[in-house]
Amino acid sequence: MGWSSWYGFTSHINETMLRDMADGLAAQEHGLSAAGYKHIWLDDGWAVSRRPGTGTIVEDPKLFPSGMRNLSAYIHSRGLLFGIYTSKGNTTCLGRPGSYNYETIDANYYVSEWDVDAVKDDGCGAIGAHDPWTAMRDALNKTGKPVWYAIHSQTTPGSPNGTVANMWRTGGDLSSSSYTMWLDRLDLATAPQQAALTGPGAFPNPDFLEVGYSPRARKGVNAMTITEQRSMFTFWAALPGPLMLSADVRLGRSGVDKDVLAILTNPEVIAVNQDPRAAPMRPVWRANGLEVWRKPLDAKNTFAIILFHRNDTGLRVDGNVGPSKRAAGSGATGSG
Fold first, then answer.
1. For 152, which DSSP code?
2. Measured between alpha carbons, how far is 115 from 145 in angstroms, rounded to an integer?
3. Is the distance from CB of 299 to CB of 276 less than 8 angstroms?
4. Which of 44, 43, 26 is nearest to 35 (CA)?
5. Sequence-ordered list of residues with C-beta below 8 angstroms from that of 88, at least 6 positions apart, any chain
6. Rounded Cα gap, residues 112 and 91, in angstroms
7. How open is the CA angle 258-220-237, to the nearest 5 degrees?
8. Which residue(s) pair with 120 in the sheet?
9. Is 122 among the catalytic positions?
């Protein structure tokens, strides 16, 4: 759970913005950190070169003049965790230096110099003979610090996914605030091959939450309704997937109003997401756009139920739960 720079801001990043996002995530008036949102994850666009001789990575001095170590220390001082980005190949998706053949150097530097808590390893750039994701996993494990590891590897024959990383992508990027697009990503993330890999410490990632305003939403053009955002949040929570925001959470901005915050801080839905069993949800009934999903929970004889109307017409859905079983989580409807 946390915030990432990519969906909302792509390469438009700098240390002031990251510090302000950390302040917004930690702010008592937002209640996000208290609800469990702890990661500030810096995505692509921060690296510029490698140092001659050592090969260690260099952050962009124009964007991060105080250095990544100071940014990490500030984020930690706010009670948050710091995540960094790289890519499996020789370059990142934005053409910055990647980690191929530098996995051990980068892993050691991230941990020893920057005290990084999480690493996203993207799928861009050319690679050679060795498996870069396994190499990075092994290098991070050898640092001695628990580091959350996320990769952009979809489920194809031979993909590492849950055998290598804590979190793996299940489809392409969500490129706009679109109800139709996230439904497609939901279907990919709930495919049987994903469910088979899901469990404690291993989670499918359908991409960021499109909940709240971000610059990519183009000031509301094609933005989802509050009901569609609530539905997305409910499904991402029950998947269980990462609850990673990319909205503008800075104090004094309009990225997270009271309706959005009510969605993001719903304690029952978050409890379902954080359930220690981490069991995948599965559809148990579908007919005419109406769907019922079931997710087993850790406590004996408990599970979460989602009632979902996929179509854009209004529909009232009533459900009864017997006394021996308790429905946890939140029901949701589609755009109707």
1. -
2. 9
3. no
4. 26
5. 98, 99, 100, 121, 122, 123, 124, 125, 127, 132, 133, 136, 151
6. 23
7. 55
8. 85, 150
9. yes
Buried b (16+ CB within 10 A) or exposed e, 48-84: eeeeeeeeebebbeebbeeebeebbebbeebebbbbb
**pLDDT > 70? residue 331:** no
**Res 154: pLDDT:** 61
Which tens digits make up the pLDDT trace of 68-107?
Answer: 999 999 999 999 999 999 999 999 999 999 999 999 999 9
**In this structure, are residues 34 and 235 in contact, taking their beta carbons and an 8 Å threshold?**
no
- Enter the tokens of residue 226: 């509050």
CA distance 273 to 266: 11
Beta bridge partners of 50: 57
Q: Are 325 and 304 in contact, with CB atoms under 8 Å apart?
A: no
Report yes or no: 90 and 111 within 8 Å, Cβ to Cβ.
no
Q: Average pLDDT, whole number, for the chain?
A: 88
Catalytic residue (choose from 44, 106, 122, 207): 122
Does residue 64 sit in helix, strand or coil? Answer: coil
pLDDT tens readout for residues 310-324: 887 766 766 665 544
3-state helix, strand, coil in the chain (%, to 5): 30, 20, 50
Model confidence at 193, pLDDT cuts 50, 70, 90, reads confident
* Whole-angstrom distance, CA of residue 68 vs CA of residue 171: 30
Three-class DSSP category at 182:
helix
173 is catalytic: yes
Residues 6+ apart with CB under 8 A from 326: 302
- Which one is catalytic: 20, 23, 60, 173? 173
Residues sharing a CB contact under 8 Å with residue 184, sequence separation 6 or more, in sequence order: 171
* Length of the chain counted residue by residue: 336
